[in-house]
Write a structure and sequence with these properties.
Elements: H1 2-11, H2 21-30, H3 34-46, H4 53-62, H5 66-78, H6 80-86, H7 88-91, H8 95-103, H9 112-125, H10 127-130, H11 134-138, H12 143-156, E1 165-166, E2 170-171, E3 177-179, E4 182-183
Length: 184
């Protein structure tokens, strides 16, 4: 990679390929060759796909590449539904990474059901270790979706159907609400 960096110093051009971009970017970062860093970031932005956007986001966790980070995150968030269907990287996310994605206001999902399905797919990839995270992940989707998720999971595990809920506000003795959900 040093040869390419030296070539850039003389010619202000550098051949960037899918095979050399990562190691070239790391070397350019180590020696603070800003021009090569910018060219590598532009190349990576042009190579953002459903299958690699998570790894590019992760890469920017280790190197200060704010424009690339922003582009990769926006790509991931704007293509969330499609990405969860085709990316194997999605299944390898940690619970904290998935939670972080679900918390973003920019998350583009046409329906909450798509987010719910993505959560179930992620859990199903390693149910023994991931089932414990259902509550925290479902808290990131809307109340209606979370309720139906709870119903589906209970029936999936053979539990009896839940009793209907009354969503009216009950008043305590002093006029303040005591609970929002009560059994009817």
């Amino acid at each position: 990679m040093m040869g390419l960096i030296i070539e850039y110093a003389y010619t202000r051009t550098v051949p960037i390929t899918a095979d050399n971009v990562e190691s070239l970017l790391i070397a350019a970062d180590q020696f603070n060759v800003v021009g090569v860093i910018q060219l590598c970031c532009e190349f990576l932005k042009s190579q953002l796909y459903l299958e690699n956007c998570i790894s590019i986001c992760r890469f920017t966790d280790y190197y200060w590449l704010p424009d690339l980070r922003e582009a990769a995150w926006m790509f991931l968030l704007h293509h969330f539904e499609e990405m969860t269907r085709v990316s194997t990287e999605f299944l390898d996310l940690s619970v904290n990474e998935l939670k972080h994605i679900l918390e973003k206001d920019e998350l583009n999902a046409k329906q909450e059901a798509a987010v719910f399905e993505a959560i179930l797919k992620w859990i199903a990839h390693d149910p023994q270790n991931r089932t414990q995270h259902i509550a925290v992940l479902l808290s990131k989707v809307g109340a209606v979706t979370a309720w139906w998720a709870w119903v589906a999971l209970r029936s999936w595990h053979g539990a009896a159907q839940p009793e209907p809920l009354d969503f009216s506000v009950k008043s305590g003795g002093n006029g303040s609400p005591t609970t929002l959900l009560t059994k009817t």
